[in-house]
Design goal:
The protein has one domain: 3-Layer(aba) Sandwich (Aminopeptidase), CATH 3.40.630.30. It is built from 4 helices and 7 strands; from the N terminus they run E-H-H-E-E-E-H-E-H-E-E. It has helices at 11-21, 28-36, 79-93, 108-116, and strands spanning 2-5, 40-46, 49-59, 62-70, 98-104, 120-129, 137-145. The longest helix is centred in the middle third of the chain and has 15 residues, at 79-93.
Length: 158
Amino acid sequence: MMVRLAHEADFAGMARLHRASFAQAWDARALKDLADSGAMAILAGQSDGVQGFILARVAADEAEILTLAVAAQARRAGLGRALVAEAAMRAAHAGATRLFLEVGAGNGAARALYAGLGFVEAGRRKGYYLKPGQPPEDALILAAALPLSGLGNGLRVD
């Protein structure tokens, strides 16, 4: 499995994966626009296509994960962890000291991933995620100090 920065030709595959992963998906143009505006677009894949990707951006000493998607057949194999670790390392090198993200309160798998990397709950957005035919879901705001404690540095969020 190769982890690298996304190229122009990758955004269509990233959009297909985002559509398969989220009810309110971003298209290739939106993903490319985010990357063009300074967000890191990091993907993991093999010769047969995109298996996962993460978009993150740095502003001053803070970084934010905008989205993370992993193909269903590639989940629970460490790919999400590798993508978060890569984005966190790049954010720290760019001067970020904290990393934030939002995750659905009911997304147990993602919450376990982030907890294992040292993220802690820093807030909640009521009714943030809208899914057709379902009640709105709260988003948990998670934060972690960089470098990530779940990668062995032992630091905590202030």
